[in-house]
Amino acid sequence: MATGKPLKKLISCVILDLDGTLLNTDGIVSKVLKVFLVKYGKQWDGREAHKMLGKTPLDAAAAVVEDYGLPCTPEELITEINPLFSDQWCKIKPLPGANRIIKHLKVNGVVMALASNSPRESIELKISHQPGWKESFSAIVSGDEVRMGKPSPEIFLEAAKRLNVEPSSCLVIEDSLPGVMAGKAAGMEVVAVPSLPKQSHLYTSADEVINSLVDLQPEKWSLPPFQDWVESTLPIEAWYIGGPVIKGFGRGSKVLGIPTANLSTEGYSEVLSEHPSGVYFGWAGLSTRGIYKMVMSIGWNPYFNNTEKTIEPWLLHDFDEDFYGEELHLVIVGYIRPEANFPSLESLIEKIHEDRKIAEKALDLPLYVGYRNDQYLRTS
Ligand code: ADP
Ligand code: RBF
Ligand code: MG
């Protein structure tokens, strides 16, 4: 992990964005706009989603009105669409790692604020469905409480003012580009957590770009470190995925000594999108052979820059034949690291072998060993 890296800044407060950073609201926006645009005889194009990120409601509405040539004003669109959103707030899920960060900072007495372009009322509604959140924030600044929303720094400066701290001792956590710009313009340290994949190269002004909240290392900012890592692994709520083994990319990973028994992602798009890309481990059950330790990567394999998010489990056992078509069930119990790019194939292979060692050892811990007996591994 981040050993040996220099400490960046002395931070005393954390200011968090809400939509797309703590809450998985992006899916809701797409869902609502899709239904809404049908009324106007238009079809929602998912590729538009990135344009909404981090905008004030009015700016986002203006973009939709213009892009789709709607016969209404942005204000009218907002009035019409708000009831549709209100029905969805209770269905929003926290993003992976959101509850963990909030709890961790709270327990350690680190002051937190929420800074969102959304109107006060919708912020309150959204967080009212998340137990323990409202009480955790010493200040909440909304888009309607400042003259200009992000990318203007105003919202973050107002948050610092209400917390009675210097901007330079605040750490902002943001998923959107306008949010990152706002945080930097406010003179704060900014960690970007892009909510769309393969976007990290756009976030050059951020002080650090991480893949998901799970990868935040508070100690880099002189904040108390997470204590929940166990022997280089992070226990997660177990999740389950299975199906017949299919042909992968045929990259000859067997030649590299790292065969991965690919699973079809069909039918798992929701589960997959819920889990950040990265290296995970757990147990694998092969219907006719047995149960094995397993280490896997989920994601786009930056080294190969795949277009699809794939699941690549390496069973930690030597088989003397292939098992294409056989039913493979996985229980994923822990996380090791984010996916990375590597300067050479050798260094990628070396890292994967390191992952293997970590997984092999960890799976013998009482914490993880029990999942070996999970019924799911034996069913097909
Ligand atoms: P592909 O591109 O088709 O996934 P690989 O070179 O990654 O090809 O090889 C994967 C195949 O190798 C699996 O589908 C499986 O049939 C076989 N295999 C043999 N040993 C293992 C192992 N230890 N872990 C995963 N797959 C293995
Ligand atoms: N590919 C990457 O590009 N970056 C990674 O960090 C990475 N980590 C992996 C970790 C494990 C445990 C495994 C099994 C694979 C990983 N891969 C990674 C994927 C690897 O590139 C891929 O499985 C093979 O190329 C086969 O397609
Ligand atoms: Mg494979």
Topology (SSEs and partners):
Blueprint: E1 13-16, H1 26-39, H2 49-52, H3 57-68, H4 74-86, H5 98-107, E2 111-115, H6 120-128, E3 139-141, H7 154-163, E4 170-174, H8 177-185, E5 189-192, E6 208-209, E7 234-246, H9 253-256, E8 262-263, H10 269-274, E9 278-286, E10 290-299, E11 310-315, E12 327-337, H11 345-362, H12 366-369
Parallel strand pairs: 1-2, 1-4, 2-3, 4-5, 5-6
Antiparallel strand pairs: 7-8, 7-12, 9-10, 9-12, 10-11
Helix pairs in contact: 3-4
Bound molecules: adenosine-5'-diphosphate (ADP), riboflavin and magnesium ion.
Adenosine-5'-diphosphate (ADP) binds at residues 245, 247-254, 259-262, 314-315, 317, 319, 322-324.
Features:
19% strand, globular, 12 helices, DNA polymerase, domain 1, 3 domains, Elongation Factor Tu (Ef-tu), domain 3, 380 residues, alpha/beta, binds magnesium ion, 6-stranded parallel sheet, binds riboflavin, Rossmann fold, binds adenosine-5'-diphosphate
Instruction: Report the radius of gyration as a whole number of Å.
Output: 22 Å
In round numbers, the mean pLDDT is: 92
- Largest sheet, order of strands side by side? 3-2-1-4-5-6
What count of helical segments does DSSP give? 12
Structural domain tally: 3
CATH homologous superfamily classification of the largest domain: Riboflavin kinase-like
Supply the CATH architecture of the largest domain. Beta Barrel
The share of residues in helices is 25-40%
